[in-house]
Each structure stands twice: as structure tokens, then as C-alpha cells.
């Protein structure tokens, strides 16, 4: 008995019948075996076709009867090959459909398991308790935010003073420093000699940092003149 007959008659599937039919895995395995067997049959027929063509060429017109018989056999083999091609297409379609059905079945089964697990998880959940819990979480978040804001604000600790009073005190301090600086300034002494009556002939005087030094002697005038010359030479 051929493998095809065993497949369609259910040979070797007594255990599967006892279970109420083959499983998808068993059916897919059978379909793959059938595809493999038909593929080998295709190779056999293609080889026979090539052989009959060689016989027809060999006899040719010398032995027309033998050549025609070879061509007839070739035609039968080609017809069988075409039938096998159609059968393989049908089996391939059936196998893909079965694979897709098996995949969908497994997906639905797993989704059912997930739904049962989710239902079991939600059995011990009370929506009212969940609402209360979320309200408590929100309140605690508000408290935490208030605490964070209070910590981040700059602490005053009695640092509230009148800014106008502080500015007035600062001005008084500055005025005291200014008065102290004015007291430290040394004013020049009044010259003992009388000033000349005609303008333009005042004795040369030496000025250094707002302190006026009178020229009371000829030696001082000579020194001042030397310094003025040095200063004029440096400036030029």
C-alpha cells in the first residue's frame, strides 16, 4: 500500500482516531511527508521524460514505431507530472491554512489564559478602595510639595529692617569719613614776607598735592626753578 493510500485511509492513525482525530502537529507532519514523497515522484518523472526523449532521438526515422512509443510514454509522464504539480499546490495551500489555523488557535488560547489571569488578579480589588487609595496618594503628594516649597524658600529669621533707615545710617557713616579726611588735610602757612605790588612777578612757588609751600628764601627759589626745569624737560 502506498503512502498516499495510507494517508487518505488513515493508516497508522488508530491512536489519533481514539483521541477524536489527529492533532494539528500530526496533520502538518503528514502533509510535509506527502510533499516530500510527491517531490521525489516529480524527480523520477522528469528523469523518465528525459530518457524517453533520448530514445525517440535515437530511433528517429530509422525506427519510427519505437520512436513514437517513446514519445507517447513521455506524454503520459508529462501528464502525471502536471497532476503532481497541481496536487502539490493543493497540499501546500492546505498546509498553510492548517498552520494559520493552528497559530490562531494558540493565540486565542494564550489570550484566554491571560484573560483568566487578569480576572483572577482583579478579584481582590475593590474600586472604592482604589479611589480612596488614589485620593490618599494625591493628598500626600500635595503635602510633600508644600514641605518642599517651605524648605526651598529663603528663611528671614528677623531680617525685616527699614531700608530707608539703613540708607540714612550709611550716609552718616560716609559723611563722617569725609569729615575725618578733611581734618587730615594740612593747609599751607601764611607767608611772612609781603607780596609784590606789581602783578606778574610773583615768586615761583612749588605745589605738591594741594599743599602750597611758600618760597621764603633764595635757596628755595633755586630749588623750585630746578624742579620746574626738570618738569618742563620731562613734559617736552
Automatic annotation (TrEMBL):
Signal peptide segment: none
UniProt keyword annotations, A-Z: Coiled coil, Cytoplasm, Endosome, Membrane, Protein transport, Transport
Annotated compartments: Cytoplasm, Cytosol; Late endosome membrane
Biological process according to GO: late endosome to vacuole transport via multivesicular body sorting pathway; protein transport; vesicle budding from membrane
Main location class: cytoplasm
Entries under InterPro entries matching the protein: Snf7_fam
Stretches the record annotates as Disordered: 1-25
Protein transport as UniProt keyword: yes
Pfam families cross-referenced by the UniProt entry: Snf7
GO cellular component: cytoplasmic side of plasma membrane; cytosol; ESCRT III complex; late endosome membrane; multivesicular body
Domain of life: Eukaryota
Gly residues bias: start-end ranges: 9-21
UniProt keyword annotation of ATP-binding present: no
Topological category with respect to the lipid bilayer: Peripheral membrane protein
Family per record: Belongs to the SNF7 family.
Protein name as annotated: CHM4C protein
Organism, scientific name: Formicarius rufipectus
Amino acid at each position: 500500500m502506498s503512502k498516499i493510500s495510507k494517508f487518505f485511509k488513515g493508516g497508522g492513525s488508530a491512536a489519533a482516531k481514539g483521541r477524536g482525530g489527529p492533532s494539528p502537529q500530526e496533520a502538518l507532519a503528514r502533509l510535509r511527508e506527502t510533499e516530500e514523497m510527491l517531490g521525489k515522484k516529480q524527480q523520477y518523472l522528469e528523469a523518465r521524460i528525459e530518457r524517453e526523449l533520448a530514445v525517440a532521438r535515437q530511433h528517429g526515422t530509422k525506427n519510427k514505431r519505437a520512436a513514437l512509443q517513446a514519445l507517447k510514454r513521455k506524454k503520459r509522464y508529462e501528464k502525471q507530472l502536471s497532476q503532481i504539480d497541481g496536487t502539490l499546490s493543493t497540499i501546500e495551500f492546505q498546509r498553510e491554512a492548517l498552520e494559520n489555523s493552528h497559530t490562531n488557535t494558540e493565540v486565542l488560547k494564550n489570550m484566554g489564559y491571560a484573560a483568566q489571569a487578569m480576572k483572577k488578579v482583579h478579584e481582590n480589588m475593590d474600586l472604592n478602595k482604589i479611589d480612596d487609595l488614589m485620593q490618599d496618594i494625591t493628598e500626600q503628594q500635595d503635602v510633600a510639595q508644600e514641605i518642599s516649597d517651605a524648605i526651598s524658600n529663603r528663611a528671614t529669621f528677623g531680617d525685616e529692617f527699614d531700608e530707608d533707615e539703613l540708607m540714612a545710617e550709611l550716609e552718616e557713616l560716609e559723611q563722617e569719613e569725609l569729615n575725618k579726611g578733611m581734618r587730615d588735610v594740612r593747609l599751607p602757612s601764611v607767608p611772612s614776607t609781603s607780596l609784590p605790588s606789581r602783578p606778574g612777578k610773583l615768586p615761583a612757588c612749588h605745589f605738591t598735592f594741594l599743599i602750597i609751600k611758600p618760597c621764603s628764601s633764595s635757596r628755595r627759589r633755586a630749588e623750585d626753578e630746578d624742579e620746574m626745569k626738570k618738569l618742563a624737560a620731562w613734559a617736552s
